[in-house]
Hints:
Elements: H1 6-12, E1 18-22, E2 29-30, E3 33-34, H2 38-52, E4 56-60, H3 77-87, E5 92-93, H4 100-107, E6 114-116, H5 131-145, E7 150-153, H6 164-168, E8 175-177, H7 179-193, E9 199-203, H8 208-218, E10 224-227, H9 232-238, H10 253-263, E11 267-268, E12 272-276, E13 285-289, E14 298-302, H11 304-315, E15 319-323, H12 336-350, E16 354-357, H13 360-368, E17 378-379, H14 383-391, H15 396-399
Parallel strand pairs: 1-4, 1-7, 4-6, 5-6, 7-8, 9-10, 9-15, 10-11, 15-16, 16-17
Antiparallel strand pairs: 2-3, 12-13, 12-14
Helix pairs in contact: 2-3, 8-14, 9-10, 11-12
Amino acid sequence: xxxRTLEDLLGEGVEGRGVLVRxxxxxxxxxxxxxxxxxxxxxVPTLSKLIDAGAxxxxxxxxxxxxxxxxxxxxxxxxxxxxxxxxGRNVQLAGDVVGTDALARAEGxxxxxxxxxxxxRFDPRETSKDDAEREQLxxxxxxxxxxxxxFVSDGFGVVHRKQxxxxxxxxxxxSYAGDLVATEVDVLQKITTDVTLPYAVVxxxxxxxxxxxxxxxxxxKVDTLVIGGGMAFTFIKAQGSPVGDSLLQEDMIxxxxxxxxxxxxxxxxxxxxVVADKFAADADTSVAYTRDGFTEGMGLDIGPGxxxxxSTVLRAAKTIFWNGPMGVFEFEKFAAGTRGxxxxxxxxxxxxxxxxxxxxxxxxxxxxxxxxxxxxxxISTGGGASLEYLEGKELPGLAVLDQGN
Length: 405
């Protein structure tokens, strides 16, 4: 990626300059409390370098999917509090996005100060399909940092979106890739162009359609493609076995049949399934073999035999990419599959494998199991962005940086 980096910006000097940083603070909340601060913690290196160099740092980020208007439940207030803790300094939170409070606070910043704008998606122009509307918001963001301002793209989880704070601001300001974005791209390049074999990919989650592109792109390149989670049931159905009330994409059955015909030698599906009588933490469970299938209940995790089989394959791999849980890990009864896969990847990493956890639910899962981040080679902050990169798609937020504004 031939773009200017944070080191380039620091070399030019940022003392007294306004620097707009697009971070990814889309963290999970439960009753207003952050349950996984991973993305906030990952933003600290870039922000700290700018603060230490005397920049006036203004951060823009989103949380959840507000409908283009303020939603108190999705305020960045908890993020500002946690970020203050991580940075060891007060992080102001503007009461709006680019309104009077944001303007007043931006004008009052001194060297090394940090201002977090309120949830950027409270403004409908952020995600507008109208180029002029997005540019209008981008222009207002640029005004906050002034004529000698700069833009640092450090939210890898959003670089696949053509949005005002990701794409359009990069066309209006001198733009640079933050440390987080640069690292993510280096990691993904490594697992696409510099792979040590055997190469294993683990895909989970609910829908085949969400992962179809990456299956098509990676299946010809890998030694093993392990499939679990809700998406596995469409493949199992494609093999002719009933799957009860499990998640199923009827319109993808023929696609799964085709994938199995073409890549059946590398695709590994569950051999047994933990079946529940209801979707609940206290559900009654049984184990069913996929060759026979089941007509009642719903599959909520891969079975113990499958955990053992998948783990054996993963421990032998030298490069591993994992995106998506194997089951409903939020319920302890259905966490064994995801935990088993995670622990097998940890073991492989100890033996020298290069392992990448592809963000999102997978990252939340490993942290919920108490596994340290450094037990893996890399934990990505961008699930969807990682997948689109691996599919070979152009990511707007990276492509615009490559234009060298």
